[in-house]
Amino acid sequence: MPQTGVDPLSNGTTCLRDAALMQRLGLNTIRIYNLSPTIDHDMCVSIFNDVGIYMFIDVNSPLPNESLNAGDPGSSYDATYLERIFGVVEAFKDYPNTLGFFAGNEDINDPTSASLDPSYLRAVTRDLKNYISNHSNRTIPVGYSAADVRPLLVDTSSYLQCALNGSTTDASRIDFFGLNSYSWCGAPPATSFDQAGYNILVADFANTTVPVFFSEYGCNIIEPRVWDDTAALFSSAMDGVFSGGLAYEYTEGSNNFGLVNISANGSAQLRIDYDNLQAQLNKLNISLLESSNATATAVTPVTCQSSLIGDSGISNDFTIPPVPPGGQDLIDNGVTNITNGQLVQVSQLSVPMAVFDSNGVQLQGLAINPLPNDQSNTPSGQNTTGTAPGESSTTGSAATPSATKGAGTRIVVEGWLWWGLLGLVIMWGL
Question: Which of 66, 157, 241, 328 has the fewest C-beta atoms lying within 10 Å of its C-beta?
Answer without folding.
Answer: 328
